[in-house]
Amino acid sequence: MELRLEGKVAIVTGAASGLGRAIAEKYASSGANVVIADLNQDSASEVAKEITEKNGVTALGVAMDVTSEEQVNAGVQKVAQDLGNVDVLVSNAGVQIIAPIVEFEYEAWKRLLDIHINGTFLTTKACMQQMIKSGLGGSIIVMGSIHSVEASMNKSAYVTAKHGLLGFTRAIAKEGAKHNIRANLIGPGFVRTPLVEKQIPEQAKTLGISEEEVVKKVMLGNTVTGEFTTLDDIATLALMFAAFPTDVLTGQSMLATHGWHME
Ligand code: NAD
């Protein structure tokens, strides 16, 4: 069965880079009009332009810091006005900060939780309001991680945030059901995006091992095949959750980790 999103409107946060961009591209190639929501207007517009040229759909770049209630609400309202509706939200924007708990700066801890947890809350709230107003419901996809179910050294804030998002996804599924809103979480293993490339030397320094060892032991050591998850693996799963033809899938988490975590 081919899953399509013809005519649907999907907002993807953090879509100027990495996984968010790959998901926006996959959605556009499946017929959706997409919104590239990211911190910087120029890079969001640039990605939107490339997606429109390649796929012939409408793509809109929107400057949105997901931690700003004002920017989130204004952005979602603009999308509803310009594109007619919001059918899909992918709450994907995120950062990584690596440090042992005893050295973790409180400001850094709060910033990470703000982006992942509060950002997902604010974007979900605004999009749910729109989905309820339209009467059409929708699909909310939360970007979790292997760290939604496992812990790693020196990633305490990230592990806390990603575990929290698993609970929040289930809460959305409960409250969204009567409005025909589904919510699911995707949990990738390591994918070679800028977020991960940056971590390799940082982890090597913090753990006192070589960069090769970080990749082989820390990042891929717990997988059964020693492989990175790919951008397309995750974009394909995000398409499945957005376009699945019934409401059977809600409150679920799909971990895509080459067997690092087995359920
Ligand atoms: P990335 O650094 O390539 O992209 C992240 C994007 O988020 C950037 O474009 C950045 O500008 C944007 N962003 C950051 N803060 C923002 C804010 N406050 N408001 C709006 N946008 C903001 O990273 P990525 O690897 O593509 O990560 C995307 C998501 O996937 C994150 O939630 C991350 O935790 C998750 N994830 C990544 C991996 C991986 O291995 N790469 C694994 C599991 C989960």
Show unreliable segments.
none
Q: How many beta-strand segments? A: 7
The share of residues in helices is 40-55%
Strand order of the largest sheet: 3-2-1-4-5-6-7
Largest sheet: 7 strands, parallel
Beta-strand fraction estimate: 5-15%
How many domains is the backbone divided into?
1
Give me the CATH architecture, please: 3-Layer(aba) Sandwich
- The DSSP helix count reads 8
- N-to-C span: 25 Å
CATH C-level class is: Alpha Beta
Rg over CA atoms, rounded to whole Å, is 18 Å
* Estimated structural class: alpha/beta
Overall pLDDT confidence = 97
Q: Helix and strand string, N-terminal first?
A: EHEHEHEHEHEHHHE
Write down the overall geometry: globular
Bound molecules: nicotinamide-adenine-dinucleotide
CATH superfamily: NAD(P)-binding Rossmann-like Domain
CATH fold type: Rossmann fold
Describe what this molecule looks like in 3D.
- The chain is of the alpha/beta class.
- The chain has a single domain (9-190, 230-256), classed as NAD(P)-binding Rossmann-like Domain (Rossmann fold, 3-Layer(aba) Sandwich), CATH 3.40.50.720.
- It has helices spanning 18-29, 41-55, 69-83, 106-134, 156-176, 194-207, 211-219, 231-243; strands at residues 9-13, 33-38, 59-63, 88-91, 138-143, 181-188, 252-256.
- Strands 3-2-1-4-5-6-7 form a seven-stranded parallel beta sheet, sandwiched between helices.
- α2 links the parallel β2 (33-38) and β3.
- α1 crosses α8 and α3 (69-83) packs parallel to α4.
- The structure holds nicotinamide-adenine-dinucleotide.
- Residues 13-14, 16-20, 38-39, 64-67, 92-95, 115, 119, 143, 145, 188, 190-191, 193-196 line the site of nicotinamide-adenine-dinucleotide (NAD).
- The site of nicotinamide-adenine-dinucleotide (NAD) has 28 residues, from α1, α4 and α6.
